[in-house]
Design goal:
Blueprint: H1 2-10, H2 16-20, H3 31-41, E1 54-58, H4 61-68, E2 73-88, E3 91-105, H5 112-138, E4 154-160, E5 165-177, H6 182-188
Parallel strand pairs: 1-2
Antiparallel strand pairs: 2-3, 3-5, 4-5
Length: 194
């Protein structure tokens, strides 16, 4: 499903240990949990952007706060948001808003110079993430992102003094034809007797 695919895609960027530390329960009754753990084990030992130490994935600021309370250093946060669909003559286009933040948690008494250094480091890390996304898109490895969508990206500052974190956020729309399978499912509900 699209949420798990995005999770695994962005898990390639930070340290593998930083990704696996998200699994705090160690197991679950949900079979997908073990499948995801197996997929994480199968990731290469060398991450794509090794300077990123930790991974946060979720939908809310509470997810972010809860995870950051336990972290120091750099992190990537893949925030998956609203999904819109457009149905056009039997096909369905699915667009999901994504925000990918690379930031650094620094000391609470950091001065302006340290915050500027954190900002400089994290824009470099986020640029590497964006470059990998473009390369993966151009090589056909991403079904959920059309190359033309890169005209609509934005990079905005991420400043969360209450989290002692400073960095940058890449905003983009992930777009794929019927990524949720809605059109096919709706056709299966059609009665042949109408």
């Amino acid at each position: 499903m699209i949420i798990q695919d995005l999770f695994l895609y962005f898990a390639k960027f930070p340290s593998k240990d930083g990704v696996k530390s998200m699994a705090t329960m160690g197991g679950s009754e949900m079979p997908e949990y073990q499948q995801l753990m197996d997929a994480l084990d199968a990731l290469p030992e060398d991450s794509l952007v090794p300077e990123i130490e930790h991974y946060v994935y979720g939908q809310s600021i509470d997810d972010l706060k809860g995870r950051l309370d336990k972290l120091v250093g750099s992190w990537i946060y893949a925030d998956y948001g609203e999904i819109t669909t457009q149905n056009t003559k039997g096909s369905m286009e699915v667009v999901q808003r994504l925000a990918v933040t690379v930031a650094m948690r620094i000391r609470s008494n950091a001065d302006m110079i340290e915050r500027m250094i954190a900002s400089d480091r994290t824009i470099g890390m986020l640029t590497k993430v964006q470059a990998h996304i473009i390369a993966d898109c151009d090589s056909g490895q991403l079904e959920w992102l059309a190359r033309g969508e890169f005209r609509k990206t934005e990079i905005v500052p991420f400043v969360a003094s209450e989290l002692n974190s400073y960095g940058w956020t890449l905003l983009l729309d992930a777009s794929a034809p019927d990524a949720l399978g809605t059109a096919a499912l709706s056709r299966s509900f059609m009665s042949p007797w109408k």
